[in-house]
Fold Fis family transcriptional regulator.
Amino acid sequence: MATAFDTHAAQRGDWLDFPDVRLVRTLAGAVIQLADLGPLSSFKLPYPAEAQRALDRTVLACLIRGVEEIPKSLPELLFWCHSRPLEDWPLDLPPDAFGPDDYLVDPEARVPTQLCHEWWIRGKDAGAAHFDREVIHTAMRLCRKASSPESYVAFRRLLVERPVLTGVERFETETDLSLAPVQELLDQCYAPVPASYEFQGGYVTCGRCLTLLTPLADGAWWCERDRCRRRGAPPHGRTLTGADVAGLLQLVRPLRQFVTGPGRAEVELEARLCTLGLEVQLWPGFDAYDLRVTFPDGHIWAIDVKDWKHPGLLGRSAKPVRPEPPYDEACWVVPREQAEAHRDYLGTYRRNRPASAEGLPLLTDDRLAALATARLRGADGPHLTDSAPTNGSPSA
C-alpha cells in the first residue's frame, strides 16, 4: 500500500532507514515460531512472546498511519499474512521491497512461505535460522579433518538429492564409506515425517524437488518450493507406502529451504553446462563457491547459484566470490523462473548490492547458458557482466 511516507522514504539509501523493515522481520519470526508449535490454523493462549510482539507492533504501525482496519488479535494478523501480499500492508517499506504475490503465509497450504523464511533468517535475533550454516560448516570441518573433499561433496549431494529417506535408505547411508566423516551429523539433519504429509496411509514426493508433497483439502498437492509451484502442478515422484513408511525421515526445514532448494538449482545448472561439453566441478575447495566451469581454452568461471525469492535481501547479502580455487571471472546466478516472479528482480538486486560487491554481476541461468554457448562457438570473449534489467528474460 502506498503511504505518505513513500516520497521521502524512497530517497533513503539504506533499507534499515525504513521504520517497518524490522517489523517485517518480527512478523516473519512470529510466523515461523507459531508454525513450529503446530498448524497455523489453530493455536492456544498464551501467545508466544514473539507473536505477541509482532501483533502489538503491527497495531502500532497501523495507528501511526491512521489506518482504520487493524488486526485486533493474532488470528486476524495471521489472516492478513495469508490474504494480503506485503505490498498491501500499511507499512513504511522500500518501494521495491515486495510484489503482488509476496505473502508471509501461503494462501493454500497455510504454512510459512519461502519469503517468510528468507526474512526470518536475516533477523539478528534468529539464532535457529542459522542452523543450516552450522551444519554445513561442521561438515566442512569434519571433511577437512579427514582430508576428504570427496566426502563433503557426497554429503552435499545427499542433502540435495535425497531429502527423504526410508528406514532402509538411512541404514544404507550408515554403511556408505564416502559419508563416514559426517555420520555424526546425519541424525541432526533428518527427522521423522509429521502426519500432515500423510494421505491414505502413504506419502508422495515431488518429482522435481524430491521433497514431500503436502495433500490439500481439495485433493490437490502442494510443493513447498515457490519456483516449483510456478512451473505448474507438481509431478508425483515416489509414492511411499507399507514398509517404506516405517522410520520415514526427511531433512529438517532449514536444510530443505536453504540447502536442498538452492542445491536443486545448482545440480540442474551443472547438468545443463555439462551438456554443452564443459568441465564442471561442484562445490570446489570445500564449497568456496558452487560451480567451477572450465572451457576448452582453460578459461574458468566461478559461479554461485542463489535461488532467493527476494532480490533486495539477496542484494544486501552480496559479497565477492572467494578467490580460491582460482578463476578468471565470477558471478552469481538466479533461476529464470525466480527472476520473472518479481518485477525488476535484477535491478532490485543491483540497487541493494553493497559497494564492496559492486563488481559481482547477477545473471539468470538462461543468460549464463547463452554466454557459455557463445564462448564455445568462438564469440569474442563474452564476459560475466551486468546487463540491462529485463526482469528475467533470456537476455538478462
Q: What stands out?
A: Confidence is low (pLDDT under 50) at residues 1-13, 388-396.
